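Private note to self, pasted from the team thread so I don't lose it. Backbone tokens:
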């Protein structure tokens, strides 16, 4: 009998504090109209000062664990996809392990920017299908507000904080992860394209770096936009091809939530009608590694993703990295 990996429970958590476009109008030279038209974002959530990525993760993970009806002690591995870890080390995954009491798990972080959650799902799938693991917790979580330059209107209007989590388990059902694909291209590992210059071994955080905001996100939005519109449909097609599934069979497409125009272009290129494309970028902005799992969790709660539905998740991010997962709920 074939052994599959299946998402048996999801959860998400968004901080309560809302930062609206009109709030941003008071901070930088921007307008609600510009942000809505160019990005589709209306508001985003901001974590309180004393809240770290693992705190959001623990909230989301507890919900996922409850819905999957697993004992935290049965979780064998915790993967946390994030570019905003609590600390460089220990890993955020270890703090999550403590928070949920998953004493028997191994724990590590995944650094693949906005594609991180699907990297985690791909790893979990491989480790479960191979028979090495039965139960893995995959989290995508970010607290971006500390790495955003709140004086840079090109980036500060785009990002938000949030977390999503999925329990992935072995099953002999046909349902579950049907195809998964991840890729990257280090030729685009360019700090001027998308990244944070200071804070790593290349450039430590000095007072000079701080004075020049080099410890904050830099992005060439126009270039990243073009790459996203090309790479996400390509990634989605790889998973569809692997599974020999046609795009018409998809019940719901969940693309990375970075910009409504990118989401619409991806849906259009793939030939997925608007009503089958999930959008929540208006409410949360870009929560990086958390977007697709927050969206999947919300889609399940809203009844937009139902048992037996065929769901296609697709992401891209800095690195460049990208990934797609086709699953039957
Ligand atoms: O998770 C992956 C990471 N990120 C992304 O996927 C983001 C990808 N990129 C984008 O979403 C878009 O490129 C942006 C939303 C960042 C920018 O939209 P755009 O349509 O590409 O605008 P642009 O960069 O071409 O800028 C157009 C104008 C510029 O003014 P000038 O040079 O034409 O006078 C910008 O200075 O809009 C200006 N602008 C703004 N105006 C008001 C840029 N940001 C703002 C702003 N408010 N917040």
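Design output:
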């Amino acid at each position: 009998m074939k052994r599959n990996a299946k998402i048996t429970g999801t959860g998400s958590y968004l901080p309560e504090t809302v930062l609206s476009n009109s709030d941003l109008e008071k901070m930088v030279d921007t307008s609600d109209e510009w942000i809505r038209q160019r990005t589709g974002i209306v508001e985003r959530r901001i974590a309180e000062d004393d809240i770290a990525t693992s705190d959001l993760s623990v909230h989301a993970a507890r919900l996922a664990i409850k819905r999957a009806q697993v004992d935290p002690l049965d979780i064998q591995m915790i993967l946390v996809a994030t570019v905003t870890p609590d600390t460089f080390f220990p890993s955020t995954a270890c703090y999550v392990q403590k928070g949920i009491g998953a004493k028997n798990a191994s724990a590590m972080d995944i650094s693949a920017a906005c594609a991180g959650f699907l990297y985690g799902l791909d790893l979990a799938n491989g480790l479960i299908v191979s028979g090495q693991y039965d139960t893995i917790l995959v989290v995508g979580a970010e607290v971006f507000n500390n790495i955003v330059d709140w004086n840079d209107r090109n980036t500060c209007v785009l990002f938000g904080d949030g977390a999503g989590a999925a329990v992935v388990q072995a099953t002999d059902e046909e349902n579950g992860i049907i195809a998964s694909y991840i890729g990257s291209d280090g030729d685009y590992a360019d700090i001027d394209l998308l990244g944070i210059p200071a804070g790593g071994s290349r450039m430590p955080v000095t007072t000079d770096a701080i004075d020049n905001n080099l410890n904050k996100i830099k992005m060439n939005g126009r270039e990243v936009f073009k790459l996203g519109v090309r790479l996400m449909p390509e990634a989605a097609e790889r998973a569809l091809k692997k599974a020999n599934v046609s795009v018409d069979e998809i019940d719901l497409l969940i693309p990375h939530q970075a910009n409504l125009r990118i989401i619409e272009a991806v849906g259009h290129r793939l030939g997925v009608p608007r009503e089958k494309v999930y959008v929540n970028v208006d409410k949360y902005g870009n929560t990086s590694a958390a977007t697709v799992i927050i969206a999947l969790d919300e889609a399940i709660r809203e009844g937009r993703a139902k048992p037996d539905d065929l769901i296609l998740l697709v992401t891209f991010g800095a690195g460049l990295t990208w990934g797609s997962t086709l699953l039957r709920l």
